[in-house]
Amino acid sequence: MKALLILLVAINFVLTESSVVTSTKITDATTSSENHANLSESKTNKKHEIYKTFNVNESRIYLDDVLFALKNQNWSDAEQPCLERTLLMLRNLQNFTLWAVWNWDSISSEPEGLLYGNRFHLGNFDECMRAPWYKQHPELRAQYCLSDIELERTDRAVKKSADPFNPYESALNVIEYESPIKRPLNKLTWGVCVPAVCQPKSVEKLTSVLLAHSHLGAVGLRARISVTDSCQKADEPLRFDGLFYAFIGMTACLVVIALVCTFLNCEYKKKQSNESSIKHQLIRAFDLQWNASKLLERTDQGTDVVYGIKFLSMCIIVAGHQYGIFNGGPVSNGFKVDEDALSVTGLFVLHEDIVVDTFFMLSGFLTATALAKAGRIPNLFVMFFKRYMRLVVTYAVVIFFICAIYPYIGSGPLWNRAIAEDTKPCRENWWLNLLMISNYVDSQNICLVISWYIPCDYHFFIVTVILYWFYKRHHGLGKIVAVIVLLVAIVMPGIINYLNSLPAIQLFTYDFVSNPRGPKQFHLTYIKSHTRYAPYLIGFLSGYIFAHITASGNMKKIPQKWAILGATLSILVMTVVTFTGPMFLWRSYNVLESAVYAALNRPVWASSVALLVICCSLGHVPIINGFLSWFPWVPLSRLTYGLYLIHTLLIARNVYVTRNPQHLDSFNSLTSCFGVIFEGSVAALLIKLFVEAPILNVLTICLSPRRSRHEGRNSDVENNRPNKTNDKVTSETGHLEDNLPSTVQVISSKM
Predict the structure, then answer these.
(1) Rounded CA gap, 530 and 164, in Å?
(2) What are the boundaries of each domain within the chain?
(3) Which of 203-217, 269-283, 422-436 has the largest mean confidence?
(4) Lowest-confidence region among 34-43, 95-104, 260-269, 672-681
(5) Cα 405 from Cα 32, distance rounded (Å)
(6) Coil, strand, or helix at residue 186?
(7) CA distance 303 to 312
(8) Which residues contact residue 273 at a Cβ distance below 8 angstroms, ignoring those fewer than 6 apart?
């Protein structure tokens, strides 16, 4: 009976509850729907909370491991302050204290993209260096340090795979793989944010702990870690030295003088005063309008195609250096860049240094035409001095800029390291550059790597003029000596390559672009005058022949069909030379083959350029003549010297102020290249108008022979034109007038 009663109560309870639920659904469906939604959201949030809790726990485990590993390092007494501050930061990080989270957040949790060629793992430099509380809480200041790491495989007994990129083999095969472009995948640079009291040895220990807790610490890898650069401390003020203020003061003085002289020269013109007076000539030497007008003057030598060849060749050099410097910096897709280097485009870029020989050839060509027109040999010492001044003025300004201003125009994780490679050698060896011996003396620390071209050009000028002087006095013996010198200049690179088992050419591989002062070949053959002389001498001989052909006054000596054929052959040969050089990357090395190519590739290139100039100047090649003689190339070609000296500074500045690795592709490089050409040309124009042209004008006034008063104005006006085109010899001093330096300057404005 009691059991039956309990059963009835239970049935009634169930029916009652069912009725309540049904009634609720019918009368308040909206509320029920909302409750259902809230229930779903609650479940979702609950899932998220579980996920977050898992991450927090995992993070605590990670930080506990880091704390344990740090405590068990061998810390010296001098390193105890660093250890204490680091442990304090980690404990505050566990409590999620802002300053500790801020510093730790600026460090890359682990290297990423290493196998794809990303060498630099820089974290967030500005977050480390610019926390908003550093001024109020100096005890919390941090510093940014770069740790260089080299990974070594420890399982050497394991047989290496034939295919390092077999996805089912060990990733260690890829880490120790080095591509034909010489990019190592076992080296990386890791930026870390540490307390300001830490010394380099302490930073190395912290980096080793972080590396051990990354995916790279999972297998047998030994890490060699070094912190060689000074760490950058937060809120450290810039300290300007005497060189900085000296450069600013010099620049201000030159600008003021130029502006005042421009105004005074305008007043002289209005008053129609005596233009032959020394006072007026000196004022006009600094006149911006007068100097700017000289940039637009054409020569009357019939070699207008030289203008286009010069500037376009300079653009190719800028593009090659843009690719090289960018590739040597923080690139995220280095693996793909190396693949592209073996494509058709890459074949052109890797051997773009051959374009430099275009300028050597043009330098010799124009020197020969100037000397041939002069008739008899001018005073050699005056020629050498004027040539030196033509080269050294802009050169000195750029070196001064590197020493005084360049360190202050950028910042970033890699900036101090990058600018030190230029600033330190320049501050120590600037005098070697100005003496034109930097490519022979202490070339491992040459100031401004690309400046090796300038002493080469100057050496070539001196030797060639002396040979020409000897030829003029002893025609028969002079020809024999010229042939012997030419043959020696051609074979010398091959002999040196053969004796030292060097590659055929200096390729723009990663090891070169990342450290251009390092490779052995750079110092033995690439920058030495005696190994680069052949193109200049070929240019001089072709220019001398050109001058004799045009002596009659009839410029068009070659029929059009032969001119077209010669120009086509020239372009074809230059293309073959450009593309065949990089093929030595994947060819098996043969010392004799490499020596032969090293001896012949530059003379062949120079001969092809000379053929193109002669065919276009003595004949007519449709389209090419018009394009290369286009008037805008005239002023631009006269800025190539300044552009050459400046462009690598602009490229390096753009690359090394970056905070994170950049993606390198052709379009980005081309866009950056146009910007560098524009900015470099503007800088070259300013140097020319405010420094180079005025100084050379004053030099011309000082070296010009005194003329009688009745020759007056006309003679003095012609004497003071630095870009004058008619080369003459004065009967009083026996030296070329200022046109020869102007002509040679056309050649010296490049690499």
Answers:
(1) 43
(2) 60-233, 244-747
(3) 422-436
(4) 34-43
(5) 74
(6) coil
(7) 15
(8) 280
Exposure string over 457-486, b if 16+ CB within 10 A, otherwise e: bbbbbbbbbebbbebeeeeeebeeebeebb
SS3 120: strand
Under 8 Å CB-to-CB from 605, ≥6 apart: which residues? Answer: 354, 357, 358, 535, 573, 574, 577
- In 3D space, the residue among 515, 450, 444 whose CA is nearest the CA of residue 318 turns out to be 450
| pLDDT tens digits for range 372-398 | 887 778 789 999 999 999 999 999 999
Distance of alpha carbon 111 from alpha carbon 577, whole angstroms: 41
Residues in contact with 727: Cβ distance below 8 Å, sequence separation at least 6, in sequence order:
370, 373, 374, 736, 737, 739, 740, 743
Instruction: Return d(Cα 683, Cα 705) in angstroms, integer.
Output: 34
The H or E element spanning position 148 is strand 142-153
Q: What is the DSSP letter of 187?
A: E
User: What's the one-letter identity of residue 530?
Assistant: H
On the question of pLDDT at 700 being above 50, the answer is yes
Q: At what angle do helices 739-747 and 380-404 cross, to 10 degrees?
A: 50
Distance of alpha carbon 117 from alpha carbon 97, whole angstroms = 36
Share of residues in the chain with pLDDT > 90 (%): 54
**Listed residue (644, 740, 751, 746) closest to 387, CA to CA:** 740
3-class DSSP state for residue 190? strand
pTM: 0.84
- Per-residue pLDDT at 577: 92
Cα–Cα distance measured from residue 379 to residue 391, given in angstroms and rounded to the nearest whole number: 19
Cα separation, 226 vs 15, in Å, equals 79
Res 690: pLDDT: 95
Residue 750 and residue 303: Cα distance in Å, rounded? 18
Instruction: Extract the tokens encoding 508.
Output: 């723009």
